[in-house]
Automatic annotation (TrEMBL):
GO CC, alphabetical: transferase complex
SMART domains named in the record: WD40
Organism: Symbiodinium microadriaticum (Dinoflagellate)
InterPro entries: WD40/YVTN_repeat-like_dom_sf, WD40_PAC1, WD40_repeat_CS, WD40_repeat_dom_sf, WD40_rpt
Gene assigned in the entry: DAW1
Entry protein name: Dynein assembly factor with WDR repeat domains 1
CDD domains hit by this protein: WD40
């Protein structure tokens, strides 16, 4: 796939910024009234959605920085994601709801309610369903058209993260109950449970859906083979792992850790290929669609883009406070 040209960063300095990777120039500054929790591009790269402690989510034109739509919750909005068409986006809020909105005019399509804060929400590939992860110890799959809850996936403690596989037939969840679980989204049956010795913050499928990676409070991420149920690699850090993700092919993993580093790892061998260093904890890390570069976001007030092959830092991007997230176009 084509290499990304821009990133968007979300910061506690009340701004999200769109940056040109090659020049480090700010293409657009996207302002909120309080800390910005997350930012993400739509699939076309032409729009960005941001979420904030100011109880709003906003859609912006990525080229001009013009505000296209603004929506409101009753409390902080933790995250938002577009569907595959870019026509809809879903928000997850501390007000116990996730809502689906029209990206063009900000009109609300449906709202889904949990018993506690909703940490994240995302669509599956057909955009007919979305999944939510909540502090109420559950993840739920919902019908986009009707708002009906299709299945409830229960943990024993808060559910931090939930995401579909590429086919949309399974969901993986990460929980404070020290487990990550792969579920069948139709029946709600447990397919596989990855047991940890401490809290699990993040879990993700590889593209083929053959493996998952999990990360949490035991100072490591782990790669699991779903066919055998075995842990095939342990990716060690010196502090908790906040975020884990595979590259688009599924051969490498990037981890973001409180130890001030992001790690790049070979899935087959478990070998650490590079360490991307910040001066404080790294909260987010992800590959661009080409898998040629990695982006990181840190509590040190910077985001960075790194070359995968050499480990070289290509770009450093500075905010005035913690950078909570970063995403490629």
């Amino acid at each position: 796939m084509e290499r990304s040209t821009c990133v968007v960063t979300a910061s506690n300095d009340r701004r999200a910024c769109i940056w040109d990777i090659s020049t480090r120039a700010v293409v657009a500054t996207l302002d909120h009234d309080l800390e910005v929790n997350s930012a993400a591009f739509d699939p076309s790269g032409m729009s960005v959605v941001t979420t904030s402690q100011d109880r709003s989510a906003k859609v912006w034109d990525a080229a001009s920085g013009e505000e296209l739509a603004a929506v409101a919750h009753d409390n902080s909005v933790y995250s938002a994601a577009f569907d595959t068409s870019g026509a809809l986006f879903v928000t997850a809020s501390d007000d116990k709801t996730a809502s689906v909105w029209d990206a063009t005019n900000g009109s609300k399509r449906i709202s889904a309610r949990h018993d506690h804060a909703v940490y994240n929400a995302s669509f599956e590939v057909s955009s007919s369903r979305f999944v939510t992860a909540s502090r109420d110890s559950s993840a739920c799959v919902w019908d986009v058209s009707t708002g009906a809850r299709l299945v409830k996936l229960k943990h024993r403690d808060r559910c931090m993260n939930a995401t579909f596989d590429a086919a949309g037939s399974r969901v993986v969840t990460a929980s404070f109950d020290k487990s990550a679980i792969v579920w069948d989204v139709v029946s709600g049956a447990k397919i596989f449970t990855a047991k940890h010795s401490n809290l699990v913050f993040s879990a993700a499928f590889n593209a083929p859906g053959t493996h998952i990676v999990t990360g949490g409070d035991e100072h490591a991420a782990k790669v699991w083979d779903l066919a055998s149920g075995k842990e095939v690699a342990t990716l060690r850090h010196k502090d908790r792992v906040y975020k884990v993700s595979f590259d688009p092919i599924g051969t490498r993993v990037v981890t973001a850790s409180a130890d001030g580093s992001a790690g790049l790892w070979d899935v087959a061998t478990g070998a650490q290929l590079h360490t991307f260093k910040h001066s404080r904890g790294v909260l987010d890390a992800s590959f661009d669609p080409s898998a040629a570069v990695v982006a990181t976001a840190s509590e040190d007030g910077t985001a960075a883009v790194w070359q995968v092959e050499s480990g070289e830092r290509l770009t450093a991007l500075r905010h005035e406070a913690t950078v909570n997230g970063i995403a490629f176009n």
